[in-house]
């Protein structure tokens, strides 16, 4: 769709600058995660550390003539949820996507389950360990 290519402001040069800035920020996150992972490995924690990577909202980036976290489109409400389970039991599913419906409230019970702690009765969400 032509409007999606132009972005929210309709000026392709402005949109390219926004995309370049966004990609620059993602590069910083990537570099920082590389540093963190190297430190975990150097300290001997890599094989026992669960890593969870997620976001609170998506980004339109000019799609549908919108910017930011607005609108009822996939770009706004589909967010990443990447969980690295260091246990050998996770080897079978490691690297494969899961299409199950999950929610942010599932992260806390997942961490508790990983630690062998029962969630409090008022805790919303469910452990995702069975999926990873």
Automatic annotation (TrEMBL):
Domain Sulfatase N-terminal as annotated: residue spans: 17-117
Magnesium: present as a keyword of the record? no
| Cellular component annotations (GO), alphabetically ordered | cytoplasm
The record's GO molecular-function terms, alphabetically, read: metal ion binding; sulfuric ester hydrolase activity
Q: Which domain of life is it from?
A: Eukaryota
> InterPro entries per the record?
Alkaline_phosphatase_core_sf, Sulfatase_N
Keywords assigned by UniProt, alphabetized = Hydrolase, Metal-binding
Name of this protein:
Sulfatase N-terminal domain-containing protein
Q: Which organism is it from?
A: Octactis speculum
